[in-house]
Amino acid sequence: MSPFSTLIVILLSAIMIHHLPLASATQWCVASPTSKDRQLEDNLGFACANGVDCRPILEGGACYNPNTPLSHASYVMNAYYATHERTDYACKFFFPNSAMLTTTNPSYGSCVYA
Predict the structure, then answer these.
(1) Residues 12-66: pLDDT tens digits?
(2) Alpha-carbon distance 51 to 35, whole Å?
(3) Which residues form the X8 domain (predicted)?
(4) What is the pTM of this model?
């Protein structure tokens, strides 16, 4: 291959690689919208009793509003998941039939999900 052809191949490769979509490796564990409130309350109790800082979901906290079991459970479930190496197991095993993984960052306003 001539030096010119080699240069063209390198340039085209660089352009193509630059335009490839990148897969997001970050996932968040949140409550499934079909979860029952009782299950979400159990999830809240479990996470808060097992090392999760639940202060952000208390009144006046950054994640208090919306004040719903779904929103509060999503925050603490993800906090538990994030402190347990973000494994599927840490999400779906400890929060059965009420958790789902998402690649969409659920953070809003000053409520930041880890």
Answers:
(1) 555 544 444 444 469 999 999 999 999 999 999 999 999 999 999 999 999 999 9
(2) 23
(3) 27-113
(4) 0.78
DSSP for the chain reads --HHHHHHHHHHHHHHHHTSPPPP---EEEE-TT--HHHHHHHHHHHHHTT---GGGSTTSTT--S-SHHHHHHHHHHHHHHTTTT-HIIIIITSTTTEEEESS---BTTB---
**Minimal CA–CA distance to 114: which of 75, 61, 66?**
75
- Are 44 and 95 within 8 A, CB to CB? no
CA dihedral (36, 98, 111, 27) in degrees, to 10, reads -160
d(CA 15, CA 29): 35
Phi-psi label, residue 109: left if phi above 0, alpha if psi -120 to 50, beta otherwise:
left
